[in-house]
Amino acid sequence: MRRPFEYAVVRLVPRVERGEQVNVGVLLYCQHRDFLGVRTHLDAGRVRALAPEVDLAAVAAVLSSWDRTCAGDGPSGGMRLGERFRWLAAPRSTMIQTGPVHTGLTADPAAELERLMDALVR
Question: Which residues of 39-65 are buried (b: 16+ CB within 10 A; e: fewer)?
Fold first, then answer.
């Protein structure tokens, strides 16, 4: 049975004032399946073409922290999955941010996350 889910594309915006971006991941939440996950992929060539000065190791560390937040490690441990999703998907003016939240239906949130990664990031 397919259930509703929400997702947002995770973007790297090297210079916020310019608004240029590279899709680097997908954040997906499915309340009915108790699923919150993020998958990321940092394509160094794409990033370097847009902003050669970006510290890729620092960006990778931030993206890794999103994975830990989804898992409930650290300060996010006391938050429910939906709260974590809303916190991560909230608008921000930093190098790592999400686009608008979209919805869909899925029977398998993990497979849907991989499908969205292939369609929107890789």
Answer: bbebeeeebeebbeebeeeebeeebee
> Model-level pTM greater than 0.90?
yes
Neighbours of 118 (CB within 10 A): 11
The Cα 107–Cα 45 span in angstroms is 34
CA distance 35 to 92: 23
Residue 17 CA: distances (Å) to CA of 20, 41, 69: 8, 23, 27
Please report, in tens digits, the pLDDT of each residue of the chain (122 residues total). Answer: 999 999 999 999 998 888 899 999 999 999 999 999 999 999 999 999 999 999 999 999 999 999 999 999 988 999 999 999 999 999 988 899 999 999 999 999 999 999 999 999 99
d(CA 64, CA 58): 10
H/E stretch holding 8 reads: strand 3-12
State the DSSP code for 77.
G
